[in-house]
Amino acid sequence: MSHWKGVESSSTFCCVQCRLLQPPTTTCVECAAPMTAPVELVRELLYYRDMQIGNHRDWAMVTAFLAGSSLAIPVLAPLAIGSMVAFAVGKFRARQQRRGIVGIDMPQAAAAVGSTTIYGVARRFRSTVTSILDDAPVLVEHAVVKDRAGAVLLRRCEAAPFLLEIEGSGPVLITGVARVTGANALAQRFKVVRGDPRLGRMGVPADLAVTGELEVTSVTVDRADLAITGMMEEESVVELAFHRDGGRIPVMRGRIGAPVIVADRRLIAAGL
Length: 272
Ligand SMILES: [Zn+2]
Description:
Blueprint: H1 3-9, E1 13-15, E2 20-22, E3 36-38, H2 39-42, H3 56-68, H4 72-76, H5 82-95, E4 116-124, E5 129-130, E6 137-138, E7 140-146, E8 152-159, E9 162-165, E10 172-176, E11 178-180, E12 188-192, H6 197-202, E13 212-219, E14 226-230, E15 232-236, E16 248-254, E17 260-264, H7 265-269
Parallel strand pairs: 2-8, 10-16, 11-17
Antiparallel strand pairs: 1-2, 1-3, 4-9, 4-14, 5-6, 7-8, 7-13, 9-10, 12-13, 14-17, 15-16
Bound molecules: zinc ion.
């Protein structure tokens, strides 16, 4: 592995709680858990289903322990966090009997209290994101690696701000943290093994043992029948200032711990 590769991959953080890969952050953008650190650092923790680390202080201790390996033990042991270190050490010993990352149930996405759902067609705003599948420009893409039993190993969600065009009214700007939900008939599924270039584009380290199914749901430009759930606010948008009142339009902005939920309207209507 080249030096450059190492630098590049270390910029991917992973939430141990919901398995979301994301840019460097102190809390997970989707679930707000503090258990988020460089994926290389926390990879050992992905071999366990029941990680429960309640607060930032304990998490800081665990990541310090992981970063320093065994050198951290004599430093931390005299402090009042012995149980946490013992917990971590016990986990690593148990890990030796395991072969792969333990999958989790798909985390429930929680929209902000007081959210509403709007329906419409996705229109390009100022940018797109690049699909991990074929470099195509898309507005939102949720990629999930599942094991053979269907449990979630790792996820990634990329979203560009986009306009939702609603029949009979003006557009709503959809921006911020997004999460695609629902069994989606339009999801594409591929068998993947360790080292697959699509996993690399997700930010999965090439040597991490993830084998199973890659499920990718993309919202393409001009995609119809979307159902978006979030808090409706109003903001001034510079790009729209020339053809709207001061550029003020309704906005749904996904925030840390309260993402905008993106779903397929037809599946909601069918009760799925
Ligand atoms: Zn999370």
